[in-house]
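Section 5: illustrative case.
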């Protein structure tokens, strides 16, 4: 979350002597989105006044993902200001090569495979011997066997579907 917040505060502008409750509200709102106030790598003013009586200030801010090691600082580019009274802010966002799974495993709703899957799972539940659950190990073994059954029935009835830009969500 970034922009011209038009809030002067000593929290981000060391030349300003006061603290504002509006700043606290901004920090609370940012925190609700798991964002925190980021500090620039080079602390310069972000707004330059064209009036002699008015001081330069820092009112352009960035709130970045809380606790992120990759996105924790931004840069202020006073040399890129051109004709604006604000300086541009920038951040480098690392883009990592990531394998995106283009296949999904599913059983189509209202299909014969769904009917078979449900029938075989119900049969597996009916065949569970729950009369002699006498200890924790027996119970865990029974649950593991049931899990194995569900996985086998799933693998037998599921269908691999390739995800494309035309796929339904």
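Designed sequence:
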């Amino acid at each position: 979350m970034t922009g011209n917040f038009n809030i002067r505060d000593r929290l981000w502008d060391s030349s300003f002597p006061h603290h504002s409750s509006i700043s606290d509200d901004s920090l609370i709102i940012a925190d609700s989105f798991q964002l925190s106030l980021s500090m620039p790598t080079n602390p310069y003013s972000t707004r330059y006044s064209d009036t002699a009586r008015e001081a330069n200030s820092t009112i352009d801010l960035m709130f970045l993902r809380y606790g992120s090691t990759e996105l924790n600082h931004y840069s202020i580019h006073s040399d890129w200001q051109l004709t604006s009274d604000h300086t541009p802010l920038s951040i480098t966002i690392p883009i990592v090569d990531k394998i995106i799974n283009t296949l999904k495993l599913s059983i189509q709703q209202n299909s014969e495979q769904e009917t078979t899957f449900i029938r075989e799972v119900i049969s597996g539940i009916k065949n569970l011997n729950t009369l002699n659950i006498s200890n924790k190990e027996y119970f865990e073994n029974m649950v593991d066997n049931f899990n194995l059954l569900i996985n086998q029935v799933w693998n037998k009835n599921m269908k691999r579907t390739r995800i494309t830009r035309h796929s339904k969500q």
